[in-house]
Amino acid sequence: MQVELEALQPLLKVATIETDALLETISHEQKEANATKDIVGAEEKLCNELAAEANAIKESCEAELAEAIPALENAVKALQTLTIGDITEIKTMKKPPDGVKLVMEAVCIMMRVSPVKIKDPAGGTKKVDDYWGPAQKSLLGDTRFLQNLLEYDKDNIPVEAMDKVRPYTANPDFQADKIRKASVAASGLCSWVHAMVVYDRVAKVVAPKREALKAATLALEKAQSELKIKQDALQLVLDKVARLEEDLAAAYKKKSDLEFQVDDCSKKLTRATQLIGGLGGEKARWSDMSAQLQIVYDNVVGDIMLASGKP
């Protein structure tokens, strides 16, 4: 047992050193994990703030566009109900009503179709702009006319076109319900012009917000990307700490087992020493008794003879 105890004690010493080293390593790694957690927490807060900012801008844009979208949708629906026959009906008008001519003038401006100079129908030598001829030729005669209106680049309407067409939409006679009395098809075109004007006005308000939203979205995406990198780094540290804690638990168990074995062996050795010590005292007593018995044995014959009275 003494040999076993001497063999166990160095193992216990090594286990203690290894356990202490693991504790120190875990303490260091935990500090690193806590520092990374603080950084990740701050960046998560930043991402939340950026997301809130981007969402607020987006909601503002949607609120502004909510004014224009219904008019735009109604105009699109009106255009989609028109047929080539409806357009041909307008084109073939010999003497188009003033309302129809007014609508086609506005559509020509929007589609950047230039007028031609004609003699003033009211008389005199002065020449005036005429859109009806160009409208018949360049717009109403184009089989893709309606499709071109549906695909119109409403986000990039030229400023000069808007400046020219606004007086038309401000005209009390330039209303879809009034134009409908002269031509249902022209009424749909009138609604389209009104929708484009409303959309352009709103779009100019929304445009800076869209740019701000774009910038905010890019900033958010960048922050989220950087946050992901740090979150991954944090997870690596946390995984490492978890593995070290498992190693520490195993080291504690190993140390505890060795401590138990050393303690058990020490106790057994103490009891054995005490037992051997006790047995040593009995040996001396037994030796004395043996010597005394030998004397008795050596004298037994003489004692018997003396007892019998023989010389």
From TrEMBL:
UniProt KW Coiled coil keyword: yes
Gene Ontology terms: biological process: microtubule-based movement
Boundaries of every Dynein heavy chain coiled coil stalk domain copy: 12-308
A GO molecular-function annotation: dynein light intermediate chain binding
GO cellular component: dynein complex
Keyword Coiled coil attributed: yes
Coiled coil residues, start to end: 213-261
Keywords: Coiled coil
Superkingdom, natural source: Eukaryota
Protein name as catalogued: Axonemal dynein heavy chain
Organism the protein comes from: Phytophthora palmivora
